[in-house]
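Re: duplicated header lines in exported structure tokens

Our pipeline writes sequence and tokens for each protein into one text file. With two proteins the header for the second block appears twice in some exports. Here is an export where it did not happen, for reference. First protein block:
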Amino acid sequence: MIFATLASFFLTLSHSLTLQSDIEALQALKLSVDPNMIPPSSYLTTWDFSVDPCDNIGPKFLGILCSSPSNNSKSRITTLELDGAGYDGFLPPRIGTLTELTSLDLSRNRFRGPLPDALKNLNKLTRLSLSGNFFTGGIWTWIYRLKKVERIDLSENCLSGRIPARISKLRRLTQLSLSKNGFSERIPNIDALQKLQILDLDSNMLIGSLPKLPPRLRTLRLSHNKLTGHITSLVNLDHLISVDVSDNWFTGPINRGVLSLPRLSHFNVSFNQFTKMEVNNYFGSGSRLRTLDAQRNHLRGHLPVKLVNFERLEVINLAHNQFTGQIPMAYGQRLGRPWRTLFLDYNFLSGRIPPEFGPVAVRIRGSLANNCLSCPLRIPLCRGQQRHASACHAVTDG
């Protein structure tokens, strides 16, 4: 049985349409996977090397697409996209002989070990997705060679080391996701990536300040790192729609220019060390901002009244800061119109709450607890104790 299996794996068809080195690369990949981790209904089960991979229409060789041969040339594998069946194996160096590949997707499996340097030979790739595996090691020796690549997703692996500065040579790149790995050191300047729209570096160990970023960036995710400095440079990125820099060590002000970016819809700066929120004297009718999360910072002063001018704002979280003074009366007029979430708990706000907080607050998700407010417990947002008077006086006197 073992002999028969090996014979079928290494069968060479005399009239094969597929280039023999491509067939051998597929064989090497299947052999690198633990056969006990190939479910009966998975793509790899359909890889039957007694037939030609490119001379097959039907249930054989699922996940494979080929080029159409011209003249007497052989067909080549152009797409290799496996299902997320939990394959446990490694990526063999022979994968680098599939030089006509434009798409490689092995995501949501259990592939492990280092990514082979032979990946640099896949210089026609436009899409590379290896997310959700257990790959280790670095990416600096090969990734910059993929000059035609448009989308790279290496998220949710065990990769480490630095993000190479030469990644800025990938001028066609529109999406780069390296989140949930162990990358460290500084983020290199990548402003040369003129087409990059999505940058996701969440959950690594990156340090230093914000790098120079591409002008067309729409989504920026840098949360759960160790980044420092200010975020003022974001004011130059007019195309930003979503920003998440939460759980870092950023300091200084939350700049008024950032909050006023024309396309910005989601803005999360929570769990940092910002000390001031600047809100433009700005009517906000053109703003698209819907979510503002600045909880757990060191924000001081009075609550920004001008937030009511952001007409599409729905979710506000300013909890666990050091705001003082009264809740602006204008906030009451925005409850439910369109504010539907308002967390102001764990500050040092004082005085009476706006009268609108009573009748409509039952429909509002949020909290005013742990302040210094006169806040009737019959109002849902007021449930939870207020601070002891001594704590309130200490802040007021300071």
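Second protein block, exported in the same file:
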Amino acid sequence: MWRLAAHVLRGTKVHAVLQDRSVLTTATLLPCRRRGTARGAHSSDMSTAIQKVEAPDAEHLVRVHWADGSESRYPCVWLRDNCQCPDCFLSSAKARRLLFEDLDVDIVAKEVTLTDRKKISITWPDEHTSEYEAEWLKKRCFSEAARAEMQEDLFLPERQYWGSDLQLPEIPFEEIMYNDRSAYQWLCTLKKVGIVLLTGAAARQGELVKLGHRIGFLRLTFYGPTWQVQDKADANNVAYTTGKLCFHTDYPVLQHPPGVQFLHCIKQTAAGGDSEVVDGFHVSNKLKQQNPQAYQILSSTAVDYTDVGVDYCDFAVQCKQRIIDVDYRGQVVRINYNNATRDTVFDIPAEKVRPFYAALKEFDDLLNSREHKFTYKLKPGDIVTFDNWRVLHGRQSFQSGSEVTRHLEGAYADWDVVMSRLRLLRKRVLNRD
């Protein structure tokens, strides 16, 4: 299937923008691809024919011996829990109807039969019968390699790290709006690289609403469904000034910060106002190598954030976040860093404050190093789309004037919405069942 993806997407060219936007090269936007897997893992070109099936009672398992020589073991309780018959599964909703209270966790198969090497049938002690297609079972093999491949298929975790050498992927706005293959490329690249520039949108408000409809819907926040970044009197956000914005992620003050951000350039100042981005995951990994203690402090210390004001409605938001958020495997999954909204309240012992500041300073220095940051300038009609959990962004200062000289419209989307659209587009583009 992934070779088909590469074939479908091969040949669609986009511009890769270097720091000097007058210098253009071409590069292919990245399709969603998976690494090769170990022998015995599920693969689209691997035979799913079953050689033999057995169910040793003492193991509470069903063993499937595949024609390719591999073996899969399926716990009986899992098989019964995932019966696909109409009584146990609502196919129109792809949801389980079987009540957990009716599930026997010690269940074993009474009888297992094999049909045409492509389907197994299990009769349970209560005479209920369940059938499972070979391909369905193969995808859900419990081996480590098969589980890893399925997770890659579902969540596309592969990342391409970058620094000042970033070649900013570009694709025309109209293409992603009306061409599913281009939209699929856009979202695949956004997931893998973390940033994509859409070009050629109309230089007026409202284009981000269209973009929201393309993926599903935008994220509503206290600043509205969209918001206008421009110099404002009595600004309720530092972005609404002409000053420099240091590297930050948006909205760490929310329990669940927006996953994706869109910034549409409607008007651009002649001097200043250049945009800057940095790969926070890449820099976090550098910090971990360079100073493991600093990394440990930033990945374990809960930092207080606050945001109080009036916009779409009045608000008083408070939250605690670790600046480097890691998952159970120790992998960086989100950066929560916004110096402007970091609270004066700091809920840690006094003796830990200075080590925290030292760790944060080292992280911030890495973010701002010439090696890691990439600078570019948006022009009217450009929409930069980026991963707000990974990519920190900033802005150089610009001169204020008697009228608005620089105007960006912004919006957010959640990764749940973006990934949903990506999966649907992949199914459509690759004709997957």
